[in-house]
Amino acid sequence: MSKVVMYASVSVDGFIAAENDDPGPLFEWLVSGEVALDGSGVLKVSQASYDYVRPYWDEIAVTIAGRHVFDITDGWDGTPPAGVDHVVVVSHRPPPEGWDPEAPYHFVDGIEAAVAKARELAGGRTVEVAAGDVGSQFLAAGHVDEVRMDVVPVVFGSGKRFFGSVHAQHLLEDPDVVIQGNRVLHLRYRVRH
To answer: What does DSSP assign to residue 95?
Structure first.
């Protein structure tokens, strides 16, 4: 069965964006090195970040995001981010008017439908769920196996929280990965079930 990973770049104080959805400097680490992370020529990271991030990106088959993230990214123009095969969008609304029905995007109503569809599409590969409100719903429902954070040395003070609106305690194992890159600290925790 596919592993479900909750993931995002995050400020030291736990925010993935400001209230207005501006990520500020959270993605600067993706352009702070010498090693090309993908074929775009834009993303260049430290060797340590590349050695950690590239294999992880290669194992992701499906990304799950909420409708808000889909809307603010314009659905990544119909091309899933980071070379992912499919995107499952949790939404009570249908795809936007004029949306290409051939794009590898699947609109579902609710987290149970999302995790089922994502696992079906993943074929045993990793399912990534975006941190924030949707990710917190997956965590609360017991669907998250692992939490990955790219911690960036900035303090936001307020904004959109990595763990969204989690209302209960969730125990994680000790971090099994702690890697320092340029302008980022990569952390990975397994979730206690």
So the answer is: P
* CATH architecture for segment(s) 4-190: 3-Layer(aba) Sandwich (3.40)
Contact in structure between 59 and 123 (CB atoms under 8 Å): no
Contacts of 185 by beta carbon, 8 Å cutoff, 6+ apart = 150, 151, 153, 178, 179
pLDDT above 70 coverage of the chain, percent: 100
Q: Tell me, what amino acid is at 121? A: L
123-143 residue pLDDT tens: 999 999 999 999 999 999 999
Q: In this structure, are residues 67 and 93 in contact, taking their beta carbons and an 8 Å threshold? A: yes
Q: Mention every residue, 6+ apart, whose C-beta is less than 8 A from residue 116.
A: none
**Buried b or exposed e, range 144-175, using 16+ CB within 10 angstroms:** bbbbbbbbbebebeebbbbbbeeeeeeeeeee
Q: Provide the token pair at 63.
A: 């990304």
Domain edges within the chain: 4-190
What is the distance between the alpha carbons of residues 84 and 170, in angstroms, rounded to a whole number? Answer: 28
**Cα(5)–Cα(13) distance, integer angstroms:** 21
Whole-angstrom distance, CA of residue 22 vs CA of residue 154: 14
Say if pTM beats, i.e. exceeds, 0.85: yes
